[in-house]
Amino acid sequence: MKEDSDHNEVEEENVVRIAVIGCGWWAQGWHLPHLAAHSPHIIIAALVNSTPNPTSTLASSPLLSLSELSIKYDCPCFHSVSEMLAEETVGSTLDGAIIATSHASHYQVGISLLQEGISRRQRHLEGGENTAHRVINILMEKPMTTDVIEARSIWEMSSNTYPEGAFIINHTASYRPQTQIARHIIASNEIGQIRHISASMNGPLMWLFNDPSNHAWVSTIPWQTASSPDDDENQHRPMIGNGYAYGQIAHVLAWIYAVLGAGEKKKDDIAIPTKVFCNMSYATNTGADVSFAAVITCHDGITFALSGTALLPGSQYADPPVGKHINIELFGEKGCLLYGGDDRLPESGRLEVRKTALGKKEDGQSVFPCAPGRDWSDLLGDDVASELKDGFYFEDGKQEGYGPGSMKSFLDACRASSMQYARGTHVQNAAVNDSLIGLRTVQVIDAMYRSSISGNVEEIG
């Protein structure tokens, strides 16, 4: 292996070992190049894919086979998570894993990795040691699962049973600095108690959702040709629906719950969903949902309207490319927070706060928190604050560079826990856990699908 020669000048505590589980289009086009860009401090330690030849209808050219990827990234490859974990030189040395498998297989892969973390901790305690064990951190593609019971199980395990490892969901929009600023504004009570939420996301995606060959995006039966752990006919529950809601609106829901501070310690959760009524329309060729309008009832009386469609004409891959149109509005008793635009055109929007001051000149005046002149160094850090841009920045899908903010947060967590292990210091609970945001997102989407089928208001699972 190249590891000994290429990394011999890098201190062991500064080297992080990552497994990539699911080696399809997204992993080959984004995750693997991003990880490789961090070399030599980041080692791609293992690749897992259930089939030897990953395929994707979205790839412009044939994907590399698992053996070709193994050569390219100089690491072993496996066909199941259990096979990888059983390999002593690999499984016990991982600092983190990226889950980029099919939506319906996220649960089983995630649980397997969380159980590995629990087993490591137990073996460490049985050995009579009470300092550091090697923590395993997780970066999971969205949605967290396609089943509420599974989502709740991951939330409970990652938050309570195994809180040592970071659990990050790859909602890239939630890791933008603009999102951190919006969360700070809500937490600081600048717009007062939230009373109403309105959000929409409209994308040019009929080429994706109306094509039957795009199995993973349109089939309601879990698709097994992407990577999954050991074959078991009972390992997946059938998906209620699959299409625009799971494929796209998860980004918006996750952004909203991230800004509302879901899961943050010492904070009462805002807008916990309790009921949903939803109408959907479906693609003629696939039956996948391509538009919806939903009303969400929340425990604290917040009214929440959510809509979206894939029917926007064009394509992000056309010439010229067409972006997604996103609009999110949070209304409070002291003002509102607005964020929206075309996600391909930063100049199309910006984060805006309007204050309520009835009877005063200031009523309705706008403030733009990301505009030059306000120092966000204490919140974002000097480097991020110095590069903050005033515009509309949502999903981060750039293939070049070191990856989105979610990847950075994941690798930072891996570095921190790796350093704890190398120094033998006590393990602390991870600073980042997105599992409650993931649960809220799955709960709402699951109820949307059930309501569209029944025609009734559906309780949150």
UniProtKB/TrEMBL annotation:
Signal peptide positions (record): none
InterPro entries given in the database record: Gfo/Idh/MocA-like_OxRdtase_N, Gfo/Idh/MocA_Oxidoreductases, NAD(P)-bd_dom_sf
Name of this chain's protein: Gfo/Idh/MocA-like oxidoreductase N-terminal domain-containing protein
Gfo/Idh/MocA-like oxidoreductase N-terminal domain residues: 16-118
Pfam families with a match to the protein in the record: GFO_IDH_MocA
Gene3D superfamilies cross-referenced by the UniProt entry: Dihydrodipicolinate Reductase, domain 2, NAD(P)-binding Rossmann-like Domain
